[in-house]
Design goal:
Structural class of chain B: mainly beta
Strand content of chain A: over 45%
Distance between the termini of chain A: 33 Å
Helix content of chain A: under 10%
Largest sheet of chain A: 7 strands, mixed
Helix content of chain B: under 10%
Number of helices of chain B: 0
Order of helices and strands of chain B: EEEEEEEEEEEE
Strand content of chain B: over 45%
Low-confidence stretches of chain B: none
Number of strands of chain A: 11
Structural class of chain A: mainly beta
Largest interface: A-B, 25 and 25 residues
Distance between the termini of chain B: 41 Å
Radius of gyration of chain B: 14 Å
Low-confidence stretches of chain A: none
Number of strands of chain B: 12
Mean pLDDT of chain B: 94
Shape of chain A: globular
Oligomer: heterodimer
Largest sheet of chain B: 6 strands, mixed
Order of helices and strands of chain A: EEEEEEEEEEE
Amino acid sequence: DTGVSQDPRHKITKRGQNVTFRCDPISEHNRLYWYRQTLGQGPEFLTYFQNEAQLEKSRLLSDRFSAERPKGSFSTLEIQRTEQGDSAMYLCASRIGGATEAFFGQGTRLTVV
Amino acid sequence: AQKVTQAQTEISVVEKEDVTLDCVYETRDTTYYLFWYKQPPSGELVFLIRRNSFDEQNEISGRYSWNFQKSTSSFNFTITASQVVDSAVYFCALNEGTYKYIFGTGTRLKVLA
């Protein structure tokens, strides 16, 4: 499978716990995105990487959220001290430089109880 | 400010009917890109089409067609002879040539057998 891969697909956690999600982009895609999608809404931009550099973070990304992309390959999104409002689908996307369409993974659905 | 509006929250049609999904966008830029994505129940956003602001030619791909009109800032999507497998949430998105994609709230299409 050469698409964007996300792990895990589902995560249920208790409020206050930390969670970490992983995204493996399409090989050779140097641009990587994290989006968040809540029920009935479109995806909302969280952050963007070009290679290993994080170029922008949305105001939606509070200081409890951190994203990394070591070596410009896979990326992780960590949420510390989870809150019920963090429950959502977290989508990762990648694209190659110069092209404009992004390709999305199947997402990680987070439920905070 | 950039914005994408999909006024139709949900549409139900009977199989073999034609259906048009509306998308209206706002942007101050003269160079921009518009996209349609399909999100089936599995959650992955599937890229369907990209159109740049300088190309107003309509496009047809099988049962899918897209009508781009700059004069009305619209980029509508028509499915001809709908099938049950077309049931999904469809998102329109805007990119102003930067790295960020702005999504509409989506239209849920239900095709009934």
